[in-house]
Amino acid sequence: MDPRTPVRRTTMTSTPVRxxxxxxxxxxxxxxxxxxxxxxxxxxVAVVDPRPGAATAVATPLGARAETEVDxxxxxxxxxxxxxxxxxxxxxxxxxxxxxxxxHVFCEKPAGMSLVEIDEARRAATxxxxxFQVGFNRRFAREFAQARDLVESGTLGEVRQLRSLTRxxxxxxxxxxxxxxxxxFTQTLxxxxxxxxxxxxxxHAVDVVATADSLLxxxxxxxxxxxxxxxxxxxxxxxTAEASFAAVYGYDVRGEVLGSEGMVTMGExxxxxxxxxxxxxxxxxxxxxxxxxxxxxxxxxxxxxxAAVREGRPPAVGADEAFAAFAVAQACIDSMTTGGRAAVxxxxxxxx
Amino acid sequence: MDPRTPVRRTTMTSTPVRxxxxxxxxxxxxxxxxxxxxxxxxxxVAVVDPRPGAATAVATPLGARAETEVDxxxxxxxxxxxxxxxxxxxxxxxxxxxxxxxxHVFCEKPAGMSLVEIDEARRAATxxxxxFQVGFNRRFAREFAQARDLVESGTLGEVRQLRSLTRxxxxxxxxxxxxxxxxxFTQTLxxxxxxxxxxxxxxHAVDVVATADSLLxxxxxxxxxxxxxxxxxxxxxxxTAEASFAAVYGYDVRGEVLGSEGMVTMGExxxxxxxxxxxxxxxxxxxxxxxxxxxxxxxxxxxxxxAAVREGRPPAVGADEAFAAFAVAQACIDSMTTGGRAAVxxxxxxxx
Amino acid sequence: MDPRTPVRRTTMTSTPVRxxxxxxxxxxxxxxxxxxxxxxxxxxVAVVDPRPGAATAVATPLGARAETEVDxxxxxxxxxxxxxxxxxxxxxxxxxxxxxxxxHVFCEKPAGMSLVEIDEARRAATxxxxxFQVGFNRRFAREFAQARDLVESGTLGEVRQLRSLTRxxxxxxxxxxxxxxxxxFTQTLxxxxxxxxxxxxxxHAVDVVATADSLLxxxxxxxxxxxxxxxxxxxxxxxTAEASFAAVYGYDVRGEVLGSEGMVTMGExxxxxxxxxxxxxxxxxxxxxxxxxxxxxxxxxxxxxxAAVREGRPPAVGADEAFAAFAVAQACIDSMTTGGRAAVxxxxxxxx
Amino acid sequence: MDPRTPVRRTTMTSTPVRxxxxxxxxxxxxxxxxxxxxxxxxxxVAVVDPRPGAATAVATPLGARAETEVDxxxxxxxxxxxxxxxxxxxxxxxxxxxxxxxxHVFCEKPAGMSLVEIDEARRAATxxxxxFQVGFNRRFAREFAQARDLVESGTLGEVRQLRSLTRxxxxxxxxxxxxxxxxxFTQTLxxxxxxxxxxxxxxHAVDVVATADSLLxxxxxxxxxxxxxxxxxxxxxxxTAEASFAAVYGYDVRGEVLGSEGMVTMGExxxxxxxxxxxxxxxxxxxxxxxxxxxxxxxxxxxxxxAAVREGRPPAVGADEAFAAFAVAQACIDSMTTGGRAAVxxxxxxxx
Lengths: 352, 352, 352, 352
What we know:
The structure is a homotetramer.
Chain A: E1 17-22, H1 26-37, E2 42-48, H2 54-59, E3 65-67, H3 71-74, E4 81-84, H4 91-100, E5 104-107, H5 115-128, E6 132-134, H6 142-152, E7 159-169, H7 183-199, E8 205-213, E9 226-233, E10 238-247, E11 252-259, E12 262-266, E13 275-278, E14 281-284, H8 290-293, H9 295-311, H10 319-338, E15 342-343
Parallel strand pairs in A: 1-2, 1-4, 2-3, 4-5, 5-6, 7-10
Antiparallel strand pairs in A: 7-11, 8-9, 8-15, 9-10, 11-12, 13-14
Helix pairs in contact in A: 4-5, 5-10, 7-10
Protein name (chains A, B, C, D): Dehydrogenase
GO molecular function (chains A, B, C, D): nucleotide binding; oxidoreductase activity
Domain Gfo/Idh/MocA-like oxidoreductase N-terminal (chains A, B, C, D): 17-136
């Protein structure tokens, strides 16, 4: 969203922003609890999930109402904004429907299943004049935000080499067949692609070369569970994005920016400053889930939603960022298909 | 408070615990904001401060009412609990008045200006059957709580040597004459005395020897701005508590427990996982205030207040802990007066 | 070198291994000092450099003799081994000449300017039955050796994702034209290629894709000063090697191995355990040169040379490792030429 | 030793300083190996130990001769300096004998069993004009030396609060009766007393209060295995020295200086930059012995001996430092005896 695009301003009142959550899965439940308990300016009004009981299980303890139909909240007068945490395949339709209903929208990543879908979602939100925020939570993690500030302020000089890494905790999927193709690019590394974009402001990704394999289920037809992607930027910077579906030591998110005047690293996985010294050495605990490691970031991104709604302005991270990150993911798919380098689209026209 | 002492149970309802804050100074304002925005089960109803405008400045942005008289909240039907953040000299009277009015109480440390005062506050709360919690925030800091768990679980074995340290940020008081005598013991190190007690459960402080001086205003009649205290415990453990009023590098809170089976350290002052690498080396930011370093602990201690009220049980840290920590502070004053070792009182009778 | 290949055994005596150093440049001077002062089993006999005065400046303070001709040491009866630290273009010829003269050889990386050259050097050493060690110093850095042990012992499980990084201190070359083409691959990243090989024992590099550019002198015809290389291994593992010629914060060498059972990281650049806490935060010093960061590793690799000579056995890192690392560098050159993925040669026949 | 005191200058030659080691126990054997292998300017000539076989076991592998009588090396023309690592009770006599024989002396701490003994040793060395160095190895540990530099340069401002800590690895002595009384002060904490003195240059210790107990053998008549000592300095600074005989997690040496302009910490026990991330968190290895943790410091202190001998100058740490540290230990004994604060002697006359 162009920062100059006007956003329909919600009448400023002293009441919190009233939010409905769509999708009561793992991350949806976490968002619901965050909205209800940790975002002062949000009021969780309703939780929607078509599965019998799923919405109720999340909504009731939080004092919200449960719905099984999205229309029940899109048509509700007491809902200002919708947080979309449903299956990714439904994201585009839900964003469009919410925008058409005049509701502000926060959508989990990816904002659609293709650049065309994301563009459609973007257009609907722009036409409706609603806030459209995308769930790139790392931008709200304190150290990543600080790193961006150091880049923008010029403290680090010219950006030259970057790294962003995601490793999911545990031993990976038990059934590889349930993982949709290209998941590692469109669902996991999309966070890292956005992080690289975020840490290299003013530049855009030019091309990528992706290397990926199934190391958990060797020879599996579609699963890719480890990937390393090199992204070239318009300012010459070289970015690396790495992902693994199986880190037994916990949820690992790190970043790094080498600039002409210095370097920053973010993320080290220690979940507190406690150090236990025993016969095996000195041990720090590591975080074991995204909701643990990024707990404050999850609250901050939803606070940003409320602030944007309240102030009638585009959110800090919106459709353009969603498009740019997905374009890198799409180029990875192209790179995997050809085995070589693939260009990153900058507009939807290029995707065909 | 004996854990078996019954506490008057607030009728369980779905509404939050309604809290009035007394004392709109720096820490009071922080508590007010925490209650209003970061403790889901609390509802900030009122802020009391006799200074014209002080209560209003804090209360209004948070949607609470401002009062200049304590009686206005002690007599209010919509107040379940009172958080006392007034001047320490008023703590005892406020706790007693709140208890007598049937209000649950959270009191900032110290809970009184002497062991007699703390005992009076304790008796009033017990007689009224209200929750009486004391503001020892470090018990709610994640790493300190983890350390205690490691001690209690036996993982660290017998506790043998401990350290707790507090250094206030900046260059110290601009006017040494406004610092009441013994402040370093009764206001600052009291946190460390409680921390040592907390980390050595089942034992009690036996005696202390305190060494302190004014290094900021050499020769000042009453100011003590640096202090090192050695505390002997009933289980033989040796504790050290250190404080300084002037740490230019920030607010520094650390702890350490050496046990027969291992050692833990807590606190390192880095305020995020960001590391900036420049020509001067690799730099981590440090926290510059208590409300920054202990932000989550402040929320957790007030959540504990609400939970104790809700569940009709004594809080995790109450009058007995307040008494025990103040007894160490009192012994430090005795030690400074005599120059030697001083016994730590275990009951108010010993204080005379 | 096949570990079973017999090596001519130097008669075991109580005298140190007598070493001549060829090439009195920066790293040669460092090797000379290490040999003379920090490797107990080495005796520095002579320093050779054709430039008038260069050998003398290094040799005299260390009590060694200075020579301007290599033949002076190859024909000397009091020289057991030669350490080659001359220009890379001379490495092959010097190794062959030394081997032909019956001298054991330690050669700085790369061991030749092509796979053919390295193969020739290897054959000469094998034919002569002399020790032929290559200067891959990171294998001797404590943490990298520990990481390899953890891999070999199975503690980390299957190797899945690796990283090795080199950043040279400072602001890069003042004159880009004096940097030979492909230096970043053949001189700098060759350390990282060997490190990746070292950390993934039993597997070999299959193909690479290299991304590199001149960010210091944009548009320069041949200089590549930043590079990111992705290496695929025969066991499926994905390696990333990164290099920069310009790290203002110091000399930065790091490594990382993700295995199915855990992850290790090596290198953090703090040159001591000192932490300075000031108004800008908490700062650790960083190392500013290879000889500072890897000081102990330099001594350990030359101690290994002496041990191999003494014990009549192949060294821990020899011609095969030199060949394997150079094959990755060569594939990077191929990748840069074609823009795509390039196969890694496993024998010299494949190079044509 | 007054820095202006002339020291007899050994004729400058190109041969190393020839050293005899007295006392082939654990630390003596370590010194012997360091002298023979890691101090380029030292040549280990002989090892003396009255126990049959002890000297031979150490000397032979290092190419030195074994002796059972001290006189054999004191009278030897090929010995320039003597390193005394015998039992502490013999230190004074050995230093005096060595000095009288015109040999330079390095003596392990403490340099005597009383201030009188240390003074006698000092006088003998001064009279003979020989170098007399004392084994305070932490002054040669990189981070402690850096900390001192930061104090001396004024970077840290005025010194206000200090800490030095020693914890011996393992579970403590198996037989408490073999530990001489006051060992924790005269043998262990003497390192910390010297460290505090070192880190607070220009000031001297004024008085101490010691708290110590046997926590390993509760009620033992003489063993003190844990101690915490507070030292007041002439510039007002408050120092804390802590020791334990039983750290299961390894050998732990740390230091800390709070100054008016900043703070430094030294020592964290990680023995390399390797971090192992597993299901239990992120683990760093810890050092398990003094010779591991302080390996470089041991070499540096013996290099300093050789340099002082070579340059005909007093060593960096000599009899005055030995006296000052022992004076603190002696005051601790006094403090333990009286239970109160005890003055620190600044001259031998005060000891009576």
